[in-house]
């Protein structure tokens, strides 16, 4: 039965996907999409494989996603690959995950197709990991294409704390007192010190695996974002799932709190 259904999907889905793409309104495509790549471990368990296999399967789905984003006209993508909470996992599990992330980032950089920008507390990561992330950013710095934020060692609360700390140090260097800073500090001042400074806030945030919570992802930037929760585990996330998310976004009336 499963193989029969798969065969039907292979025949029908390309036509369905093409139809969805044709009817997407160009003026309502999200400029910046954040993606929470969730469900790798559950996928591995479901297929009877070890956790490392789940991480690798998830990593293999990143390049296709970036291609789908390019196809519809997305300009910025933020991929949450490792949270600050994830750093507390058992060392043998964390080592394997970091290895997969390093190899995935190296592969993205080698494609020389996307501009990679690490975001996160790189000082919390092993030196080898942070060095490879920085090397990927340096190697793709001049690419005029999709900007891909690689969120590794990322936590929304940590980002806000880092932004405030950076702002205070900057103001202190200019000779301003704490009282003077407190009188004039604004949300815009803090935004200029976030990991994503200079970028538009995400219009759409996608989370896979059926979880319906933000979990600390882009806490500051997502104040006015639209959210799309998909049941598929990340390694099973397909082009049709992505297009449905984009279509759902295009159909919404954004109110921005009004």
What report would you give on this structure?
This protein has 258 residues and is of the alpha/beta class. It starts with a helix and ends in a 7-residue tail after the last helix. Helices cover 49% and strands 13% of the residues. The longest helix has 21 residues, at 2-22. It has a six-stranded parallel sheet, with helices on both faces. The relative contact order is 0.17. The mean pLDDT is 94.
Descriptors for this entry?
single chain, 258 residues, 6 strands, globular
What's a quick, concise take on this entry?
This protein is of the alpha/beta class.
Ordered list of secondary-structure elements with their pairings:
Layout: H1 2-22, E1 32-36, H2 40-46, H3 51-60, H4 62-72, E2 76-83, H5 91-111, E3 115-119, H6 127-139, E4 147-154, H7 156-173, H8 178-184, H9 187-191, E5 204-207, E6 226-229, H10 239-251
Parallel strand pairs: 1-2, 1-5, 2-4, 3-4, 5-6
Helix pairs in contact: 1-10, 2-3, 3-5, 5-6
Number of helices: 10
Most strands sheet = 6 strands, parallel
**Into which percent range does the helicity of residues fall?**
40-55%
Distance between the termini: 49 Å
What structural class is derived from the secondary structure elements? alpha/beta
Q: Judging from the principal axes of the Cα atoms, what is the shape?
A: globular
Strand content: 5-15%
Q: Biggest sheet, strands in spatial order?
A: 3-4-2-1-5-6
Q: Roughly what is the average pLDDT, rounded to an integer? A: 94
Order of helices and strands: HEHHHEHEHEHHHEEH
Number of strands: 6
Low-confidence region ranges:
none
Quaternary organisation of the protein chains: single chain
Radius of gyration: 20 Å
């Amino acid at each position: 039965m499963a193989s029969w259904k798969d065969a039907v999907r292979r025949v029908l889905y390309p036509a369905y996907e093409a139809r969805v793409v044709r009817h997407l309104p160009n003026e309502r495509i999200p400029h910046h999409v954040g993606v929470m790549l969730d469900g790798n471990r559950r996928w591995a368990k479901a297929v009877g494989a070890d956790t490392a296999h789940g991480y690798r399967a998830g990593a293999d789905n990143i390049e296709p996603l970036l291609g789908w984003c390019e196809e519809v006209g997305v300009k910025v993508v933020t991929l949450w690959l490792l949270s600050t909470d994830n750093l507390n996992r058992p060392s043998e599990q964390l080592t394997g995950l970091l290895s997969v992330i390093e190899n995935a980032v190296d592969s993205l950089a080698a494609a020389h197709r996307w501009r990679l920008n690490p975001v996160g507390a790189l000082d919390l990561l092993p030196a080898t990991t942070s060095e490879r992330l920085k090397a990927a950013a340096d190697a793709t710095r001049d690419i005029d294409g999709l900007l891909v934020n690689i969120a590794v060692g990322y936590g929304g609360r940590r980002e806000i704390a880092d932004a405030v700390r950076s702002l205070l140090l900057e103001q202190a260097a200019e000779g301003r007192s704490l009282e003077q800073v407190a009188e004039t500090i604004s949300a815009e001042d803090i935004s200029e010190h976030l990991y994503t400074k200079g970028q538009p806030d995400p219009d759409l945030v996608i989370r896979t695996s059926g979880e319906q919570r933000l979990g600390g992802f882009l806490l500051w930037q997502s104040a006015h974002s639209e959210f799309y929760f998909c049941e598929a585990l990340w390694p099973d996330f397909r082009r049709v799932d992505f297009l449905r998310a984009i279509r759902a976004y295009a159909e919404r009336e954004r109110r921005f709190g009004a």
